[in-house]
Fold:
Amino acid sequence: MSTTLKYLKFGHFLLEKKLISEMDILNARFLQRKNNLRIGELAKAMGWLTEDDIHKILIIQEETFEKFGEIAVREKFLADKQVEKLLKDQEDSHVYFGEALVKIGAISESLLVEQLKEFNTLKLRNTNSEFFSIFFSSVHSNDSTCHESIRNIFPSC
Structure:
């Protein structure tokens, strides 16, 4: 588990422990998809953007990789205050995966908290051990070059 823990998602962690089913994961993700609206969808629901406006912004976004709200303001589809409101509304209504599991009745809130603590502790422990293993292997190697992972953290290495 330690080699894949870095990439393990919380749902799969719970699945491996047989605390939830694959169907629970799908149902929780569906609830998230239904509730976690994108800024364009929120703006359309407020009557601030049309479907065509959203598509125009998305086309620009594909080319520039800029944030939707930044494009909408620059291209004068929305004002700064509107984007701020949309971002706040988006944040306020966001449903996290664990929260979705509780809402669909797959696990209790107390079990969620307990498992999140364990999951985060394992991930942190794994991340730290990977870091130190890479760090010490590069420090103790005969090679004078610094390991690439360490160079990303310590550019002067």
